[in-house]
Write a structure and sequence with these properties.
five-stranded mixed β-sheet, five-stranded antiparallel β-sheet, OB fold (Dihydrolipoamide Acetyltransferase, E2P), 6 domains, Helix Hairpins, alpha+beta, globular, 683 residues
């Protein structure tokens, strides 16, 4: 079929579909505010595929259909970068960053402050994207900075990579030739889902999102890459021909955003180097809450003319510096494995490590999770292992350096009997966790159950710390949770580091804890899989403890967010005679609560989704969440078009920006306090 024989209406329809799908991609990946429903997007994409199949002449490189992948390559070809892709020098302390600023000002002979663009340093793969007349022509890896690999076929499959640049009314025209530099990475949620699929297939898990992204981009079969949850975020430009760009770095990135690229919403302009240091600390605090991994912040002189004056050294620009966060992964030696018993009897293997500094602290222990994880890792005592610590997350062993395995490495033997009470260790079919069968006979389980019961989000017993619980159990003074309310002043005062005053303070705290709420009491009981939200849903649904205790598994599944597994655990717990006896003993001891009369559908915030962001100064985050949930609201961790309100405290960043973009009402903490007072809370 010749070009002349293609009806004009078909040509116009193809162009209309291109524009529709291009706009939908921009809204989804750049604005994070999709207007076109997924089902409609899929329908229009299928329509375009059908037309291109019927009229192959209309298939163009920038067609949205060209993201599904093509036939496998035999190898990657080399690409020479027109403008070298240099690496960055690194700073690891405030002093090193201040020294960088001093060098910049000295070279510029400037006594005034220098403005810096601040960008999160995404932990992904650096790439170069070359556009000619607005169409993606080539994508390449950094390689050695001068020569990289042509991965165009793979990069085309990444949804956030524009195949054609946007050119709409009011948008500055793009250059005839434009090379864009950016990072392709794998978001945390996508990485977790990918590893779930990999584990289900019995394959080796990826160690971290960066490795997963690198492996995905270097697939010779781009159809595999198309199935991976990759994203692009741009941070600069290389070759430009046919147009002038802004004289400021951040203004250039904003322009790239108009042309269809995703630019990081956490970017900032810092007035001087002290503002850079403050931003580094602020983003470091937010690091774990970001949906992607970052390993530092890149500070760049914002003025492009000043960048040109500063120039380059052999391998890095003089106008940029990466201030790295403490490493989250390190190698060390696995010295031994011990087994700990938790509140529900779970027997957890704990790696004893040669101490190593990682994630800002010295780590000597790490979790190995369970028997299946030990087998998956293939880890042995004596191995050199890679451990990871992210923020407050418990350090974990993520891989083994098999090439360093010593000849005397020992197999890890999982215990057949509890290391605490010698009861048999049992495994339930379908569960990876092995459990001690001893129940409260096991002092380890008893200690953990009491610690959980006394915790702040449960009964909130001030002064009953972990060490005191262990003393009470070890001394034979405490055999159950209800026993807390029968402690004797003289016995407690006689414990190590306790006296009459400390003992009386503890007994007073125990007395105060008797006045609680049904959700807190349910959470404090430590029922498997029943967290704060589930406890609140159960209390709302059934209204009283008596009705809940008599509920069947079928009726339990009518509760929001309660499925068959949780329903089984709840029903099983309340059917146990010792649980019933313990609940009765607690109530006889005086533990009580007021039955909430308000039904869920009558709650003023029922059906609404709220988001908390930034630092709250009067309420804790969990307290604010608790108040909102008691009013019927769902408290989410991210902002979307379905969010009703955002509460923003100092330090609020991307969530606040997104709320403003979506025109979602925002209030500060004082506004939240006023609203809660109006709803009857005494704060």
């Amino acid at each position: 079929m010749t070009k002349q024989s293609i009806p004009q209406s078909i040509r116009e329809r193809v162009e209309a579909l291109h524009e529709l799908l291009l706009k939908a991609n921009y809204q989804y990946y750049v604005l994070d505010n999709p207007e076109l429903p997924d089902v409609e997007y899929d329908r229009r994409l299928r329509e375009l595929q059908d037309i291109e199949q019927q009229y192959p002449e209309l298939l163009s490189p920038d067609s949205p259909t060209q993201r599904v992948g093509a036939e496998p390559l035999s190898s990657f070809s080399e690409v020479r970068h027109e403008v070298p892709m240099l690496s960055l020098d690194n700073a690891f302390s405030d002093e090193e960053l201040l020294e960088f600023d001093r060098r910049v000002r000295d070279r510029l002979n400037s006594k005034g402050a220098i403005e810096y663009a601040c960008e999160p340093k995404l932990d992904g793969i650096a790439i170069s994207l070359l556009y000619r007349n607005g169409i993606l022509e080539r994508a390449a890896t950094r390689g050695d900075g001068t020569t990289g690999e042509d991965i165009t076929q793979n990069v085309r499959t990444v949804g956030s990579v524009p195949l054609r640049l946007r050119q709409e009314t009011g948008v500055t025209a793009y250059p005839a030739v434009l090379e864009v530099r950016g990072e392709i990475y794998m978001p945390k949620a996508g990485f977790a889902e990918l590893n779930r699929k990999v584990a289900a297939a019995g394959e080796k898990l990826f160690v971290n999102p960066r490795n997963a992204a690198a492996g995905s981009l270097r697939q010779l079969d781009s159809r595999i890459t198309a199935q991976r949850p990759l994203e692009l975020c741009v941070y600069g430009i290389g070759l430009v021909e046919g147009a002038s760009l802004p004289e400021e770095h951040l203004a250039t990135l904003e322009l790239l955003g108009q042309w269809g690229f995703r630019v990081n919403s956490e970017m900032r302009l810092a007035a001087d180097i002290q503002a850079c240091i403050e931003y580094h600390r602020e983003l470091g605090d937010k690091r774990e809450g970001l949906p992607y991994d970052i390993d530092g912040i890149v500070f760049k002189v914002n003025s492009i003319p000043l960048q040109r004056r500063l120039g380059f050294v052999a391998r890095a620009p003089r106008w940029a510096m990466a201030y790295k966060f403490p490493a989250q992964e390190e190698m060390t030696e696995l010295l031994d494995v011990e087994f700990q018993v938790g509140r529900t009897g779970a027997v957890t293997p704990v790696a004893r490590l040669k101490p190593v500094f990682v994630g800002g602290v010295t780590v000597s222990n790490a979790t190995l999770h369970n028997r299946d994880e030990i087998q998956r890792l293939g880890v042995m005592i004596g191995d050199t292992v890679v451990i990871r610590r992210a923020g407050d997350v418990i350090p974990q062993v993520v891989s083994v350096v098999e090439s360093k395995r010593p000849k005397d490495a020992r197999v890890i033997e999982f215990p057949a009997h509890c290391p605490v009470c010698d009861s048999p260790v049992e495994s339930t079919p379908g569960e990876a966790v092995a459990r001690c069968s001893g129940g409260l006979i096991c002092s380890a389980q008893r200690k953990q159950a009491i610690k959980h019961f006394a915790s702040r989000k449960a009964m909130d017993i001030d002064g009953l710390g972990d060490k005191l619980v262990e003393q009470l159990v070890d001394e034979g003074l405490l055999h159950s949770v209800s026993g807390l309310y029968h402690l004797d002043l003289e016995q407690v005062a006689g414990l190590e580091r306790m006296g009459q005053k400390s003992a009386q303070n503890l007994l007073d705290a125990l007395e105060r804890s008797k006045d609680t709420t049904l959700p807190k009491f349910l959470y404090a009981l430590g029922i498997r899989e029943v967290g704060e939200a589930t406890a609140r849903n159960l209390a709302r649904h059934f209204g009283s403890l008596e009705v809940l205790m008599a509920a069947s598994e079928e009726s339990l599944q009518e509760v929001e967010d309660v499925g068959p597994v949780v329903a089984h655990f709840v029903a099983e717990f309340f059917q146990q005679s010792h649980a019933q006896e313990e609940i009765e003993a607690l109530r006889q001891a005086g533990v009580h609560w007021v039955v909430e009369k308000v039904a869920a559908e009558e709650q003023p915030l029922a059906g609404q989704t709220w988001v908390l962001t930034g630092k709250l100064e009067t309420l804790s985050r969990s307290e604010a969440k608790d108040y909102l949930q008691r009013l019927g609201a769902k408290v989410a961790g991210s902002v979307s078009a379905k969010t009703h309100h955002v509460v923003a405290g100092p330090g609020a960043g991307s969530k606040l920006n997104k709320a403003r973009e979506l025109d979602i009402p925002v209030m500060d903490e004082e506004g939240l306090m006023d609203m809660l007072r109006q709803r009857g809370f005494e704060i």
